[in-house]
Amino acid sequence: MTEISFLNMNGTQFAFAVTLFSGIFVAICIYFDSQRRKDPAFRKKLKMKRDRDRLLKKAYVSSINILHDIEEPQDQETIILREIELAESLMAQQNYDKAIVHFANAIAICVDPCNLLIALKQSLPPNVFDLLIHVLVSNYGKQFSRFQEDSRLKSIVQNQAIIRF
């Protein structure tokens, strides 16, 4: 009775086996990639991902400009109100991408963002609020983590921060 084992292979047989299995693995990868690209939803998902990345980039650039403009507490209140008004008018026009940028800016410069975030949770559609949380986590990580410990927001943030894109 002859047993076939990898231990009894010589160098040439082992190299052939590795090459064969590597080729099969690459062929399987190519097959599944072509299947993924043939999927009708692939282009839509790709477009959504690119739009989200573009939105995050705009939010980051906009937030840098807003945070440098603040000098006095009165200016801060004025900027927060202006950002919220702009966001609300953009929401009425169903321009959610730009509205999220303005909401994120208002939350970032707010002294007590917990109340504002709770109010937005109740008034915004769930998909818009999810994207707002994603923008806050990605652009304002340190600021967002400091009020994530608040018991009022802990359940909201934990449920919303685990978003699959």
TrEMBL record:
GO molecular function, one term: mitochondrion targeting sequence binding
GO annotations of cellular component type: mitochondrial outer membrane translocase complex
A biological process from GO: protein import into mitochondrial matrix
Membrane topology: Single-pass membrane protein
Lineage: superkingdom: Eukaryota
Alphabetized InterPro entries for the sequence: MAS20 (IPR002056), MAS20_rcpt_metazoan (IPR022422), Tom20_dom_sf (IPR023392)
Keywords from the named record: Membrane, Mitochondrion, Mitochondrion outer membrane, Protein transport, Transmembrane, Transmembrane helix, Transport
Transmembrane segments: 12-32
Compartment list: Mitochondrion outer membrane
Pfam families xref list: MAS20
Record has Hydrolase as a keyword: no
Family: Belongs to the Tom20 family.
Name listed for the protein in its UniProt record: Uncharacterized protein
